[in-house]
């Protein structure tokens, strides 16, 4: 460590978003030096989008965060009064941005940077009074590592001090299309198992971030290779999981990633041009907008829905998927809603593979209705996961296998078409009768039988057998006369 804090011109210009220039002006009257640090500096150097902003100061960090929030008419949150950490959440033309302000982690800026995780995250830029956004402060030579996209520890204790950094190293190596320096990798192997003794919530948050990268299967292969997957999520390896089984999961996740990318607003047209993915993309095209809205779901603490789908594929096994999903959700401290969604996702591909190829097939409308009744919105996830599984197992060369693959695609399309285009007729038709009207018309008393009759009528509507109140009552009486048998 050179320890040189002299600002200097970097080897490439720093590419800041407008909000940083606005912040620079807003901090011209601050009494203490303020520094941009960590990920924002790295991303500005690498010409990557700067998502959120991290600032550090010698003192009064919470006070500064409040000042920033007030200046931009944003929201203020005191995150940690003991450590003097505050947050400002402000609106920009490109959406909300989070600005975290923290007091130096140690005596001064040098010690603060030296105590960070990796050298490319240990660069700083002074902002506001006395600062120059074009000059870099780089005491650990992070610029050289950033140019090589090399994940290198800041010091010998970087990983042992905080084992969460083991997962972060893998994630950032994938995000930056880089690699992990040899000694850092040795430390990850040595101290990574200490993740088992780390706060489950912190492990969850970092692991979900890893699942949300653009190539999650690559990240998972790497953490499995260095022994971290067994520590973080042993359920993915149970029971007696062979390497071939695990690789099949990773391959399915690769396929899922391609399918989700073909749906996204930034999809790669050249990649979609491949035959198998092209088939999926073309058949899903009519549902692009509702699929994008579905995939934009965000779970507690900003956990992205796509990461939950990857987790479902990782925990999947043909005969124990539900157990693994429930145990995995508990280990990662997921919310109840996430747990329930994950369990339903884990049903793939069984609910789809025996379905109709077309809505006009015999029994198709009954199957479609029951599928969405039983799975709800999670049925969309089951469809997409089934496509990924089917692509891996059936989307290969050979006419008979290709025929099975095409059949599976049509089964998924049939289900999605009903859900997105015929929801009020085939999935959730408006009730012709409520429970009170039904009891009055049939002369029956409250009880489970009322619910059974309402469900009978609802299914009859979805199938097309019941279109009026008279037909609904006729079907209900026939059900009662038959002793409760359809």
Quick take:
It contains 26 helices and ten strands.
Supply the number of helical segments.
26
**How many distinct beta strands?**
10
Mean pLDDT over the full residue set: 92
The shape is elongated
Q: How far is the N terminus from the C terminus?
A: 78 Å
Main sheet makeup: 6 strands, mixed
Question: SS-based structural class?
Answer: alpha+beta
Give the domain tally: 4
Strand line-up of the largest beta sheet: 3-4-5-2-1-6
What does this protein look like?
- This protein has a 6-stranded mixed sheet.
- β4 and β5 form a beta hairpin.
- Helices cover 55% and strands 9% of the residues.
- α7 (164-175) packs parallel to α9 (200-211) and α12 (243-263) packs across α21 (378-394).
- The model has no long low-confidence stretch (mean pLDDT 92).
- 41% of the residues are buried.
- It folds into 4 domains: 18-147, Beta Polymerase, domain 2; 164-230, Hydrophobic Seed Protein (Orthogonal Bundle); 233-427, no CATH class; 435-481, no CATH class.
- The protein is α+β, with helices and mostly antiparallel strands and 486 residues long.
């Amino acid at each position: 460590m050179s320890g040189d804090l002299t600002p200097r011109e970097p080897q490439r210009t720093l590419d800041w978003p407008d909000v940083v220039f606005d912040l620079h002006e807003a901090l011209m009257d601050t009494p203490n030096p303020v520094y941009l640090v960590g990920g924002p500096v790295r991303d500005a150097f690498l010409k990557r989008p700067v998502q959120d902003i991290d600032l550090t100061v010698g003192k009064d960090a919470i006070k500064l965060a409040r000042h920033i929030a007030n200046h931009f008419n944003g929201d203020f949150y005191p995150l940690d009064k003991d450590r003097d950490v505050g947050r400002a959440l402000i609106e920009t033309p490109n959406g909300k941005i989070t600005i975290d302000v923290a007091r130096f982690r140690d005596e001064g800026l040098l010690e603060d940077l030296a105590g960070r995780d990796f050298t490319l995250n240990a660069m700083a830029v002074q902002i506001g009074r006395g600062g120059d956004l074009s000059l870099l402060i780089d005491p650990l030579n992070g610029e050289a590592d950033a140019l090589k996209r090399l994940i290198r520890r800041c010091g010998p204790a970087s990983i042992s001090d905080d084992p969460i950094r083991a997962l972060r190293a893998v994630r950032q190596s994938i995000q930056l299309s880089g690699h992990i320096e040899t000694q850092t990798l040795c430390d990850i192997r040595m101290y990574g198992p200490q993740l088992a003794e780390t706060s489950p919530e912190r492990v969850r948050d970092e692991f979900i971030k890893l699942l949300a990268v653009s190539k999650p299967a690559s990240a998972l292969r790497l953490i499995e290779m260095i022994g971290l997957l067994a520590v973080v999520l042993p359920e993915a390896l149970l029971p007696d999981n062979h390497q071939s089984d695990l690789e099949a999961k990773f391959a399915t996740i690769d396929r899922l990633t391609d399918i989700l990318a073909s749906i996204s607003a930034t999809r790669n047209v050249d990649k979609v041009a491949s035959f198998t993915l092209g088939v999926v993309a073309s058949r899903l095209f009519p549902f692009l907008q509702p699929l994008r809205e579905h995939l934009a779901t965000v779970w507690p603490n900003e956990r992205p829905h796509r990461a939950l789908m990857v987790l479902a594929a990782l925990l999947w096994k043909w005969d124990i998927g539900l157990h693994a999903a429930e145990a995995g959700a508990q280990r990662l401290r997921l919310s109840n809603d996430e747990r329930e969604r994950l369990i339903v996702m884990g049903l793939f591909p069984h609910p789809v593979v025996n379905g109709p190829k077309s809505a006009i097939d015999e029994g198709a409308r009954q199957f479609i209705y029951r599928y969405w009744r039983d799975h709800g919105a999670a049925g969309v996830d089951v469809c997409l996961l089934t496509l990924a599984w089917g692509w891996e197992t059936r989307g290969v060369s050979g006419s008979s296998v290709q025929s099975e693959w095409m059949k599976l695609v049509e089964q998924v399309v049939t289900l999605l078409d009903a859900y997105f285009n015929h929801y009020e007729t085939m999935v959730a038709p408006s009730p012709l009768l409520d429970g009170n009207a039904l009891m009055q018309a049939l002369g029956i008393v409250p009880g489970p039988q009322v619910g059974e009759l309402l469900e009978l009528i609802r299914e009859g509507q979805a199938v097309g057998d019941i279109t009026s109140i008279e037909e609904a009552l006729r079907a209900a009486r026939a059900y009662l006369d038959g002793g409760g048998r359809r």
